TrEMBL record:
Lineage: superkingdom: Eukaryota
Annotated protein name in UniProt: DDHD domain-containing protein
Organism: Monopterus albus
Domain WWE: residue ranges: 60-144
TM stretches of this protein: none
Length: 792
């Protein structure tokens, strides 16, 4: 019986042994030698202990014989995580597509490719490999699975290789057809499988060398449980993702190679975020999905770090040479994570980062459009940590339709036609390189398309290269400024206080002229935009206009302040993106707010993101209740004590009748007046004392009705009431006049020690269902799809 030793060796490592002495009392007898799969079990097996034999017979009697039915296969794919191997099932829809393609692939010579998992992966059916489409990743193995095994230390069933499963299925078919059980299958690698009955099938590992004092193989090897068909194992199989894509979202990561505390990559984190969004769509847009109004939202990761680190730039080797040997782990962590912040503030590496993000987003967008030609939805971007700052700077420097055409024309070589190559080199004092450039048939038009690396390949030294590139850049900027002055009205500005409160629209033009006047310099502070402080680099243009920009745990506010921007003009908006949401966890040490930079005269609380189950968390409800309780108790007690003290310490003055000139008051009238005043004062004192006592006696019931009755009411009403009570406040046009800052609700355990959960709070967004639901709600609100809160 054919079976690959390499596959079985890997198989043995993947599944530990299990003790099943209650099923086969004497495994030494069960693993008697046999040559073929058709061999019946040795008589030694029939002479097993009475207890085990009787148990098998009982199972045989209980099992109802049924005609043989071919097993239904299901396709699985392999995933490596933390040095462990997991086999996960494809969705039912993808598995059916793979099975149909497998049946037709035998008659074809070329490879059959099937798109699976929302068309994010391509499976090469004949090769049995799965390749990612949108990102670089090693291909994973896929398998057509029919038989599975598991040991007692395994958490899930593992599929057998296809050859092994085929052999088991043939033996099972013979046993069912002939009704002959207790069959034993021996494989060349020493693996032994015994089919006791349809419900009990065991596999035994190779015994190996036995020591003299070992009495039975059960002390050295333990069997595995074997199951036939995916229906007999506990595994969750989904139906598949909707084919219709309503919205496309690109997600840009922050600093470091890992995106969460489990040290997972951006690809794995985005996969989890996508899975959470699919679950929320099924629960919060169930009716819309049934009516066909809602498909799904596609989330794609944007990885820019690989272009900065490694062999791409060689910066890691340069940093390693100057790193001190002490506290090596801490220094390694710093070099891997925190240095990304310094790289972004460097003109050289900032250009690399921005170019990588823009080119990767454009590449993914084009590739997505090719694979989904029917897609006509909008596109949004998400940035986490430093990724949000990168997107903010990119979106700040985008151009609208007319500006894009003018900007592109400024890049066209026609703007340099005013001079010849010889005249330009003469102005720069570089006539000696004219022959070198003309030998490559270069003129001013083609020279404008050259990069530093191209001129370096021609043998031109660094100094002349910088002069040539700076000359081209100067002419481009001057032409651009002239075009904007004549044709384009400036955008609504971000204002700044440290440059005479001049609007950024004018400041940008000034800064562009400053750039044009700047000579070659690695770090020239005239290269910083006035009021923004962005490094003067060539910001590339995106191939689309994002509908919304979501920032997770973003330091944008801090960076703008450090750059010298004290105030954002309320009329400012991104040129090509009209919605901006700043989402953060209250304990996130990296996150900063945006709204105080726009509305500085009003103390605005951030918008509280509702829990995905439709309420405030219970500990926040209790916290609000106790806060109101303490304030009311303080006011009531102080007011009652003040009233009582005034009533006891001060006697009311006697109101004497006015004395008319010429009249006299008798002594009897005065005494009567005093007596009536004393009686009146006494009555008032008794009434106030009784009123004070009544208040004290009524406090417990009023306390219960006012505070704890409200906690029992459905929390969704309280949340909606709080939101409706808040007045509508305009916070500028950065989000179309809507609120910008949104804060998540901390978990109960996080409220005990905010310092302990600070790092986790910065990395929690990838698994936050509240964050995913906010994105879905904003996306589908613009599509006119109603949000529905599921019943709890």
């Amino acid at each position: 019986m054919s079976f690959s030793p390499g596959e079985e060796g890997a198989l043995s490592q993947a599944a530990p042994d299990v003790n099943t002495q209650d099923l086969c009392h004497n495994p030494a007898q069960c693993v008697a030698t046999g040559n073929t799969s058709e061999d019946k079990v040795s008589p030694v097996v029939d002479e097993a202990s009475p207890s085990s034999t009787s148990s098998f017979e009982i199972l045989d009697m209980e099992s109802v014989l049924a005609p043989y039915q071919e097993v239904q296969p299901h396709w699985f794919f392999c995933r490596q995580a933390d040095d462990n191997t997991f086999w996960l099932p494809f969705s039912r829809e993808d598995s059916d597509k793979l099975e149909n393609s497998c049946n037709t692939a035998a008659s074809k010579e070329e490879e059959v490719v099937v798109a699976v998992d929302g068309q994010r992966y391509d499976v090469h059916v004949k090769e049995r490999k799965c390749y990612p489409v949108y990102w670089e990743q090693a291909p994973t193995e896929v398998r057509r699975c029919t038989w599975f095994y598991k040991g007692d230390k395994d958490t899930r069933f593992m599929p057998y290789p296809e050859d092994f499963s085929k052999s088991l299925e043939e033996a099972y078919m013979i046993s069912v057809t002939l009704n002959e059980w207790k069959r034993k299958l021996d494989f060349p690698t020493g693996e032994t499988v015994i089919l006791h009955n349809p419900k009990l099938i065991m596999q035994y590992q190779p015994i190996g060398l036995q020591d003299e004092w070992i009495s039975s193989p059960s002390e050295q090897t333990r069997p595995r449980t074997v199951k036939r068909g995916v229906d007999n194992i506990s595994v969750e199989i989904t139906d598949g993702e909707p084919e219709k894509v309503d919205h496309l979202v690109f997600m840009v990561h922050g600093i470091g190679p890992a995106c969460d505390l489990r040290f997972r990559s951006i690809i794995q984190c985005v996969n989890d975020f996508r899975s959470a969004s699919l679950s929320l769509l099924a629960s919060h847009y169930k009716r819309a999905q049934q009516d066909g109004l809602v498909g799904r939202v596609e989330f794609l990761p944007v990885n820019w770090r690989s272009a900065l680190h490694g062999d791409a730039t060689g910066v890691d080797k340069d940093i390693q040479r100057i790193t001190l040997p002490s506290i090596s782990r801490l220094r390694h962590f710093t070099n891997d994570t925190l240095l990304d912040l310094f790289f972004y503030n460097s003109p050289t590496y900032c250009q690399t980062i921005v170019d990588t993000v823009a080119s990767e987003v454009n590449r993914l967008h084009d590739l997505f459009k090719q694979r989904h030609p029917e897609f006509n939805g909008a596109v949004s971007v998400v940035g986490h940590s430093l990724g949000s700052l990168i997107l903010f700077d990119l979106l700040t420097n985008q151009r609208t339709g007319s500006e894009t055409r003018e900007g592109l024309s400024s890049w066209e070589p026609c703007c340099l036609k005013c001079d010849t190559l010889e005249q330009a080199l003469s102005k720069l004092g570089l006539q000696q390189y004219l022959d070198t450039l003309q030998a490559e048939n270069l003129d001013l038009e083609s020279l404008a398309l050259c990069h530093d690396s191209d001129l370096k390949d021609l043998g031109i030294p660094l100094g002349p290269r910088k002069k040539i590139l700076n000359y081209i850049r100067r002419k481009k900027l001057l032409e651009d400024c002239r075009t904007q002055t004549e044709c384009v009205a400036p955008l609504p500005p971000l204002t700044t206080d440290h440059v005479g409160n001049q609007p950024l629209g004018l400041a940008t033009q000034h800064s562009q002229f400053h750039r044009a006047q700047s000579v070659t310099s690695a770090v020239d502070y005239e290269y910083f935009d006035v009021g923004i402080g962005q490094v003067s680099i060539d910001y590339p243009q995106l191939a689309f206009h994002p509908q919304m920009f979501f920032a997770f745990g973003s330091p944008i506010g801090m960076f703008l302040t450090v750059r010298g921007l004290k105030h954002i003009d309320p009329s400012y908006t991104f040129p090509t993106c009209k919605s901006f949401y700043n989402i953060y966890h209250p304990y996130d040490p990296v996150a900063y707010r945006i709204e105080p930079m726009i509305v500085s005269d009003v103390d605005l609380e951030p918008m509280l993101i509702p829990h995905h189950k439709g309420r405030k968390r219970m500990h926040l409800e209790l916290k609000d209740s106790f806060t109101r309780m303490s304030m009311d108790l303080k006011n009531n007690v102080l007011g009652s004590i003040r009233t009582a003290w005034q009533s006891f310490a001060r006697l009311p003055a006697v109101a004497l009748p006015p004395v008319i000139e010429g009249e006299t008051t008798t002594e009897t009238d005065l005494e009567e007046t005093r007596a009536s005043a004393e009686v009146t004062a006494s009555v008032k004192r008794e009434e106030k004392s009784a009123d004070f006592g009544t208040k004290i006696l009524e406090w417990p019931s009023a306390f219960h009705n006012h505070y704890f009755k409200g906690v029992c009411v459905e929390a969704e009403t309280s949340v909606s009431a709080e939101q409706t009570q808040q007045p509508e406040i305009k916070v500028g046009m950065l989000n179309g006049g809507r609120r910008i800052d949104y804060v998540l609700q901390e978990k109960p355990i996080e409220s005990f020690n905010e310092y302990l959960f600070a790092i986790q709070s910065h990395l929690c967004y990838w698994e936050s269902e509240d964050t995913a639901l906010l994105l879905l709600k904003e996306i589908y609100d613009k599509l006119g799809v109603a949000f529905e809160q599921p019943q709890q």
